[in-house]
């Protein structure tokens, strides 16, 4: 059963105990625009309020990508000024937090590209199940922008600091085998078996006691909170410095002009 969505680029469906949130921008490999980020909390709120929904699955439309990142074509419009950056970053952070803070179990069903903000979405989920041939990466260092502190923390908690640094430093794409070895994904299946595998996992979860599952989720999440001496203001200042830099302008321009960027470190 389909439910209403604020934008046609996000599809929300309910089938039995599963709530499906589908990123529906296949012509851009499901790159997420501002209206899509803003729709995420609204869709999740509907799933949360429905007692029949026991598991929430996030997936991408089109069979080529989960989510290939944020829609960089919007960056000049929405992330080129301090005000625009703040509004855009607020929308993305609200979306990430809405996924991470959802009381019900969440699974990212990954088939294809899972890049940048797409990986951030997947990391906000409780589990990640991927098809063979899927690729993963965070290309922030090729664009001159900075990944948010929340998303960075989730990556560190999933793969550990050394792998997190490798992902950020190299900005390269990692194979599904590498992702599995790092613990970036929980399970890998064939492309043809992916949806049935995910449905079977959802069925396993749905038949268990909801209060036990919900308690486990919250207690585990408590153990992943940053220590009390975490300097949020320092992180925010470092991230803002990237967005205000000439390198960020160069990264945007090079992406749109389909050329290799030349960064100066300023």
UniProtKB/TrEMBL annotation:
Reply yes or no: does the keyword Zinc apply: no
Question: Which keywords describe this protein according to UniProt?
Answer: Isomerase, Lyase
Q: Give the Gene Ontology MF terms in alphabetical order.
A: isomerase activity; lyase activity
Instruction: Indicate whether Isomerase appears among the record's keywords.
Output: yes
Record-linked Pfam families: ECH_1 (PF00378)
Q: What is this protein called?
A: Enoyl-CoA hydratase/isomerase
State the family named in the UniProt similarity comment for this chain. Belongs to the enoyl-CoA hydratase/isomerase family.
Instruction: Please name the source species.
Output: Parvibaculum lavamentivorans (strain DS-1 / DSM 13023 / NCIMB 13966)
- Set out the biological process GO terms recorded for this chain's protein: fatty acid beta-oxidation
> Which InterPro entries does its entry note?
ClpP/crotonase-like_dom_sf, Enoyl-CoA_hyd/isom_CS, Enoyl-CoA_hydra/iso, Enoyl-CoA_hydra_C
